[in-house]
Amino acid sequence: MIDHVIQRTEREDFRATSDPALLESADRGEVNLLSYEQLYKLWERQQWATQDLDFTRDRIDWHERIPEDERFQRMYGLSSFFIGEQRVAEELGPIMRAAPTGDMRIFLCTQIADEARHVRFFNRFYDEVGVLESATLQARLAETSQHVNPQFDVLFDGMLKGRVDRLARNPDDLELLVEAITLYHMVIEGMLALTGQHFIIEYNEEQGTLPGFVEGFNNIARDEHRHVAFGARFLREMAEEDSRYRDAIQRTLVECGPVADGVLTPKWYVEGETKLFGGVTPDETRAFAMKCLERRLKVIGLAPVV
Question: What's the total number of domains in the chain?
Fold first, then answer.
């Protein structure tokens, strides 16, 4: 293991997002959440460009250092992120338009830009490293779709898209907006994306592989922490405003929980038989995701969902 690797939870730029999952004080429900204006200003300070990343070493690592069976396993995580970023980028528009204040909408506009940049990051990585046979963005999305499991499609194409489509038709439905942000920011970004990023980055840092990818993925993880901090702020305000919004948060978490849990496990994994690269088990990823959710819920003012 590389001793000098700084844990992401201790990085100043990560902690600047005030995402409750990064702060031990959240175990006591004590976090100073940033305002929507402060989150916007933080976005301005934390800019980065996909075109500045160098994937030269990554190409060598992928084809010469990483075994074929490990490359296959890695494709589950890579594909989930690539397709997931594209899905959420398309669903943010109605959420942004339904946000009740101008400060909220302005921040959500920055998040749309972030999600588009994340898609471009993966597309450039695939292109320059030579991971796929396809040569266009849409073809790569189609090629990688074979690696995700059925629960992934249920969560993104069913639960998220269904709520967002209804929100587009009823932008004044705040209860529906609360459901959408709970699913988007707390479950998809907070539980799934940030959990996957944590273990993928950690493993590559330990192995000394894919340095360009690690640099870019760290930037993406920092963006996601900022997005989740927005979700925590919004949901806390709504939970304090009316009990029906508290109920909407809890109802959404209960409904989506089993599906989200299924997304954490690759479709080819067989407990007791499949050996995962890095040695991290689905139980470990599940425990990490639940701890992060628990901290965020405490700050929002809700009891953890069992």
Answer: 1
Q: Distances in Å between the alpha carbon of 287 and those of 27, 35, 234?
A: 15, 29, 25
146 in any annotated domain: yes
Find the domain containing 196 and state its range: 51-300
On whether residue 37 sits in a domain, the answer given is no
pLDDT in tens, 205-229: 999 999 999 999 999 999 999 999 9
**pTM of the entire structure?**
0.94
Specify the long-range contacts of residues 161-165, CB closer than 8 Å, at least 24 apart.
Answer: 161/87, 161/91, 164/91, 164/94, 164/95, 165/94
Instruction: Mention every residue, 6+ apart, whose C-beta is less than 8 A from residue 167.
Output: 94, 95, 98, 173, 176, 177, 180
Residue 213 CB partners (closer than 8 Å, separation 6+)? 55, 58, 125, 129, 204
- Residue 10 lies inside a defined structural domain of this protein: no
Q: Is 128 among the domain residues?
A: yes
The amino acid present at 37, given as its one-letter code, is E
